[in-house]
Amino acid sequence: MKTSAIIPVKTFSNAKTRLDLKGENKIDFCKLMLEEILQTLSLTPKIDKIIVISKDQEALELSKKFNAIQIVDDETGVNDAISLADDFLQKNDFDASLVFPQDIPFLKTQDIDFLLSFQHAPKSVLIVPSRRFDGTNALFRMPVNLMSTHYDEDSYKIHLTTGKSTTSHTSLVFVRRIMMDIDNNEDLKFAISQNEKPNLCQRFSELLGS
User: Fold this and answer.
1) Which structural domain, as residue segments, surrounds residue 132?
2) Each residue's pLDDT tens digit in the chain (210 positions)?
3) β-strands 170-172, 136-142: how paired?
4) How many domains does the chain have?
């Protein structure tokens, strides 16, 4: 199974508006999160290729370190960005894709292995919700054009409903570290308290405190 990870990345300076960090600290924080998830995905044997879609040059340059495909977009929305990646995957004979946001830095390789263990059919959808069940923190689609995405639209519920209407092999999977996204200071403090990646948590704490 030829599988790609898709990461849409919003321009760092415009991202995470609900996170109360100083300007440069917020940019550094976004870079750190993206680098961490790219590092994890690059070490995951079941991910054949990473695709980063962004118009942020720093994000695109960072992705080169991990041999990712870079797609430049106009930042008209997450769903438009993912559709660009979907087109690339279909043209290059990929079987499946996994969409991740950039704000789940505590993801580990074993989490992806666990998630993919629920894929049992040629037409499959796997969904990992956010911790608050108000978003989608991982979306697996096989084939890659099985369904459109609906981010920024109460995506968890819509993806679940759309998946079920598309294939009976739609599963909701709870993976704690994938569910830990960071949108605001409360999320950040909670994530630090879990201490899943101590070195990363230390760097986050420094950014939060400075």
Assistant:
1) 3-209
2) 899 999 999 998 888 878 888 778 889 999 999 999 999 999 999 999 999 999 999 999 999 999 999 999 998 899 999 999 999 999 999 999 999 999 999 999 999 999 999 998 999 999 999 999 989 999 999 999 999 999 987 899 999 999 999 999 999 999 999 999 999 999 999 999 999 999 999 999 998 875
3) unpaired
4) 1
